[in-house]
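yo

u said u wanted the structure for the complex thing, so here. seqs first:
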Amino acid sequence: MIAIIKYNAGNISSVQNALSRLGYESIITDDETQILNADKVIFPGVGEASSAMKYLIEKGLDKTILAIKKPILGICLGQQLMCESTEEGDTACLGIFNTQVKKFPATEIVPHMGWNSFTKIEGELLKNLQPNADVYFVHSYYAEINAQTTAVCDYIKPFSAAMQKDNFYATQFHPEKSADIGEQILKNFLEL
Amino acid sequence: MLKKRIIPCLDIKDGRTVKGINFVDIQDAGDPIELAKNYVKQGADELVFLDITATIENRSTLIELVKRIAKEINIPFTVGGGINSVEDVARLIEAGADKVSLNSSAVKRPELITEIANQFGSQCVVVAIDTKFENDEWKVFVHGGRTLTPLTTVNWAKRAEQLGAGEILLTSMNNDGTKAGFALEITNNVSSAVNIPVIASGGAGSKEHFKNVFEQTKATGGLAASIFHYGEIPIPELKNYLKEQNIAIR
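structre next:
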């Protein structure tokens, strides 16, 4: 079973719809046992970091996420919350990835919204992709590049489009909204 | 490089797709789900669904439609029409919409933009502006283009950005339905005045019109309806043409 973490963020049903299209059943849950017993966990989200973090702590989901041993995929806000901290609401986050999340300077249009490609790509999650593959981004904050970065996208500056540390995977873009390429990436994750 | 977006718009009435010429004279152009799936297959970058009768008719048909769209398609989509409250937005987002588009309700009560942005994030708030050049000025119209407001277009776009809008969908009523090209001047003025994405809408009739709007304005997306519905410009052909013109296209 695949668990999708239920919390106060949008976009959660989109992930479930994407999994159904690939033929996978999933449950949207905030129950610790269900999350820890799942074969795969997805931590999606569109929303605001400080209220999301506050909610996770109140529900004890911060500790649950850190205790997950099976592969977990953070998407968009999920990726940002897996970092050490974010400038959005000056929020301390889960600290899985050793990097900070910063706001894009307004030298170009913000949010970074639309389809963009990678300047670096590696690892299991992003295998079988064409080098010029485009995926869908929508965000105003970005994770800085670090040792755990597995894909780089360049908008205003190079940032972490994907990261991995042990069983923790994350993407800044939305695979569930990235057409066939996104489906390939979700499939890669589900088949880990 | 960030790509320019090609965005088909589906005008919805009673769960079916329609397209008005200059906002009146509606013709049926098919089933929205079938059209949407076909657009995704052709390479559309996003979709917009506008419920053009939502202000006066029942909402539940639209919510059911949005749920079906969210199940079937794997690219982002915006839903607009008749959104008056945070509760309306919550229902659409829950049903699977990625963004909502506000028009008359945002003019009537601009704080609504902020309320939605605070709860769901700026990225999901599109402010749609219907504009018409009248008495030497680009003015904002509401109620499907029927009512003139005192607002000038650039000022309203800037205000919407300050209030928390994540994107502007700018439709020129002078150009809509004419197939004579996008309104380049006002699109350039608005897209230069704000630092959020602007989608140009109204008037697309040829591939060159998309090239012009991407080269001569800062618009990051081009929206059209009938030329896509009736297959006058197939999306793959449009995208290939724009790539040949060195425009960043997926």
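The interface with chain A takes residues 1-5, 40, 45, 70-71, 74-76, 93-96, 98, 118, 120-124, 166-167, 195-197, 218, 220-221, 250 of chain B (CB under 8 Å). Residues 100 and 186 of chain B are 23 Å apart (CA to CA).
cya
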